[in-house]
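Hi there,

I know you've been waiting on this one. I reran it after we fixed the sequence typo, so this is the corrected version. Both the input and the resulting structure follow.
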Amino acid sequence: MGGRRTYMLIWAALLLLTAVTLGISFLHLGVGNAVIALSLASVKAALVGLYFMHLRRESALVRAFALAPLLFLALIILGTLSDTLFRK
């Protein structure tokens, strides 16, 4: 695939995923709404990172540095949740 065509396909996929996210928001799935919305947001973020930030063709070291903040975010969220869930 050529460069311009790839970008157009990724852009169309992002628009489609955004439309799916919007459609899901009108359904009453309880906690499922948040799970589906966050999953779709993760897929969209991966597409942006891989194609628009050119991480797909970078070395493993650059990818590791791009993914490292996600580890710290997970630690912060887990720390906050553990404090909130186990309070008396």
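Quick highlight: The two ends are 57 Å apart (CA to CA).

Best,
R. S.
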